Every structure is written in structure tokens, then in C-alpha cells.
Amino acid sequence: MRKKLIILFIAIMGLGSINNANAQDWNAIRNSVNKKFIRWSSDWFIDTYVVGSVNITEVESSGSGYEFWGTFKFTRGGKTYEITCSGKVSGDYRVMKLCYKDSSLGMSDCY
Q: According to DSSP H, which parts of the chain are helical?
């Protein structure tokens, strides 16, 4: 019963599938990625990161940390776009690598 409630909570909160990480891990990863996007986007010239828009859709344990995949939103020219992101975080949730892929423009980058 407890496991079903945890899975229901995760589904309601939009945290994707559990996949080797608990809800605390998901939230900590999402918060760290959000903070990293805030720092990274301060160097962007045209686009503006939509703060808090990170949606982590998959997390897997990887060595002493986690790999993650998801999406985030940004604005460009008054329009809001959502594109994919991925990366790695350490066991204490420090973002070690953060990448995005903008298929519409054929662009990708990592920070």
C-alpha cells in the first residue's frame, strides 16, 4: 500500500517514473537543475530561461550520482518554447553536466 501511495504521489507531482531514485532525489535534482539553468542563462543574449520550468522525466542511478532527462522552457522573441535537457548530478545533487537540445534550430550545448 505504501509503495502505491508513493507512486501515486510521484505521478501527481509530475515526477515521471521512479527508476532508481526516490521522490526526495527527484525534487533535489529538479531544484539543482533549475538553479544551474538560472546561472547558465544569465549568459544568454537572446533567450530567457523560464525560472522553475524544469520538468525531470527520467532519472537513473549512475555511479556515485544520477543521470537525468527532461524538458525546460525559455522565451525567445515573445514566444515560449519547451525543449529537452539532460545531464548528470553528483550524489549530493551538484549538477556536473547540463545539456539541452533544440531540434527546431538544430542546436545543442552543454554547461
A: 2-12, 23-41
User: Rg of the chain's alpha carbons, rounded to an integer?
Assistant: 14
Instruction: Give this prediction's pTM.
Output: 0.79
Lookup result for grid cell 535537457: 85
Phi then psi for residue 36, to 5 deg, are -65, -40
pLDDT digits (tens, 9 = 90+) for 8-22: 344 434 444 445 678
pLDDT tens per residue across span 69-108: 999 999 999 999 999 999 999 999 999 999 999 988 899 9
> How many residues belong to the chain?
111
- Please give the grid coordinates belonging to residue 89: 548530478
Contact of 62 with 86, CB cutoff 8 Å: no
